[in-house]
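Figure S4 source data
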Amino acid sequence: MINFKVILASCLIFLFGINAIAQTTDSYGLTKIGEINPRNANEIEGSNWLLGCETLDRDFTDYDAYKEYLNPLGIKRLRLQGGWAKTEKVKGQYDWAWLDHIVNDATSRGLEPWIQFSYGNEIYEGGGGINLAAGVPHSEVALAAWDRWVAAMVNRYKDKVINWEIWNEPNFGDNLENTAEKAAALNIRTIEIVKRIQPEAKVSGLAFGHIDLEYAAEFFKVMHDSGKLELLDNITYHDYVYNPDSHYPKVMEMKKILEQYSTKITLRQGENGAPSIGGPGRGAIGDHDWSELSQAKWDTRRMLGDLGHDIESSVFSIIDMAYNSGPIKRLNVKGLLMSDSTKQVIRPKMAYYAVQNIAAVFDNSLERITDVKDSHNSKYIPEDPNEVVFNKSTDRSFAVYGYKHQETGQQVFTIWESESMPNNSTEKRLFNFTFANAKFEEPVYVDMITGEVFDIPTDQWSKNGAQYTFRNIPIYDGPILLADKSLIPIKK
């Protein structure tokens, strides 16, 4: 049995020192009343979250090393890569043992695999590559073999797997070989096979390595003109950026292009995360002075930013990945669990617990308040009872999103400084906030990085009808919550 409490205590002391973590009551006048109580994935009916368990197809990670950490994290859906080259090493012969083990174990734990059809297979001429930046299969012989493998995998797992994804990052590194037309053609032939065998399947397409609006427009057009676009349930994208709040204008622009062809297909952020240490050769956004703290801030800002835009969000990845081939040359340290070349778990990182906090609070019992406006006028009271107005005592840029419980109507607001990439400091600054048309019975303050929950003293908040004012609230570039206490699972 994993003692997460002991591990968390040792991690926090190691990373920050006792004084930095315990600056709560003395520094900001708030009284700690407990911490977020983690929830097992099986306790959660549904949520916005997915978890990256990629690269098992290339043996960069070991499923058995981290499987006991999956359920306690609180995320039900797992992103896996199907590994054509690992399964079919001899033409016409499939060895499913490795994938059977993972799928059977995950589903026995109540988890839900989301399996990607990737990569190519070099035993066939024109069979495509087997790593990032690989070309898609293109010869008639290879594509026929691809079709057989896809059909065999869907037939094998259709009773346990309903979620699929087609290929991975066709445009990685500005890949000129995988044109939008080629990527669309592979999506079309693959989804036809999946839907023929498993009509109820949920299929993700595109899996953008970075958002290229021209590429997306061509992909959508080819799919639409073939009459196959609306067979897809969602369009996935990755788009690593240093400031996790900076790319939403581009995401929304891609959504507008998609809606020219279909308003039924949703967007899914299919793979995103930040490193816990910096350095070249470690993959996307690695060349920065990252720490476990800035990683935790980045991951939680990405999750809650996606939630605030009604986009499903996948965390990359459960564990550090020991790449030994392809364009990434060193340990990819975007894992929530620390590992090394042995692929064994050393310990959970701060990001593991921060993501665990998000999963414990934000499940499908909450619905987004779609109209949270910044009025810059604390006197403004909206006429529309569904319009929540947010006012702050500063011109700094904040990300603010609101949610309400579907049954009680009690609310929670996420707030963080959004104007720059996450730094490596725990220092906070004090700001005042006013919410009009809000609903709190007993408001609390929550730091989502540490999971600490604080009572807000009565002299720091007031209520006038449905208008709430909060004074001297500590804010930094990691997410905090102003929430009704009933919405936070608290362990004392």
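Figure S5 source data
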Amino acid sequence: MPRLVLTVIGDDRAGLVKALAEVVTAHGGNWEHSQMAELAGKFAGIVVVAIPAERGDDFVAALRDLEGLMEVSVHPGAEAEAGAREGWQPLTIDLLGNDHPGIVNEVTGVLTRHGLSIDTIATETRDAPMAGGRLFEAHVVALVPPTADPVALRADLEELATELLVELAVE
């Protein structure tokens, strides 16, 4: 079955995921993977579904019936190339510090310079309980290619943590 990547967003309210799941099920599809969350009063996410090829057009048309409830964009999924990420190792990065513009840009800049690919990233800001202000927190899982220099990568991340005045844990 072809895999489709759906991006969804709508005003946060009960029943959004159920409405989408009903359309997937009605077209013989399988909900394979998703990441969804409430963000700033909106409910947004990405969903990977497998839909029988002969039902794909009807499925996409049925998604249009969800307009008014949520916006859904459909993108064809790519088949994973065998061995494309062979030897790549996961690296987990947890970051916590005072919030200020540019943190994600700086961290991802280091990862990009070392050839890492982000598998997942979750970020949030929250009130600092004792000091006032806002805290920024990030949890990143990146894939490290076999050609990367782990010592240089760690040194660059530690230098960045010092520059940004954040706590950084790398595993």
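The helical segments are 16-26, 56-64, 103-113, 150-164. The beta strands are 3-11, 30-39, 42-50, 71-76, 89-98, 117-127, 134-144, 166-170.
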